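Hey, weird one. I pasted the Guanine deaminase sequence into the form twice and got a warning about non-standard characters only the second time. First submission, copied straight from the form history:
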Amino acid sequence: MPEATSSADFAQRAVDIARDSVAAGGLPFGTVIVKDGAILAEGRNCVASTHDPTDHAEIHAIREACRTLGTEYLTGCTVYAIAHPCPMCLAALYHCAPDEVVFLATREECAPYMAGGKDKYFEPATFYTEFAKPWNERRLPMRYLPRADAVAVYKLFGAQHGVVSL
């Protein structure tokens, strides 16, 4: 891995990872996580090779960085992603709470080159629109099956953490 020391270097490294992925027949995504001016973790989209739909570049890098740090939080870190994160990656980024996320291309800039394909629900241009719909209006069929015992598990958790009392 080349030595990177500035925002421009870290951004370039994310682009290089994505370009290498495309050259190897993969998808054009690359992520670099930086802490204290040094690269802590890198990731590329490995969905096709691992058959894991969650193995996105950001998720891959987050997992590596968190293992290295021994925590689920990326406090003090900056994440460089070649494109605006998808909803799954964005949610993971909110969970791990880095100091900053820097993305190098917008969804709108990437969409013309990513549309179509074999994924039934994945159309990047409409992903966020689909997520904003009420659960019962999405293209992905969803069904609510109410269970009091499911809610009871959350009540138990809340009680253990001083959020509610039983």
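That's the output from the first submission. The warning seems to come from a hidden character in my clipboard, not from the data itself. The helical segments are 7-23, 47-50, 57-69, 87-96, 107-114, 127-132, 148-160.
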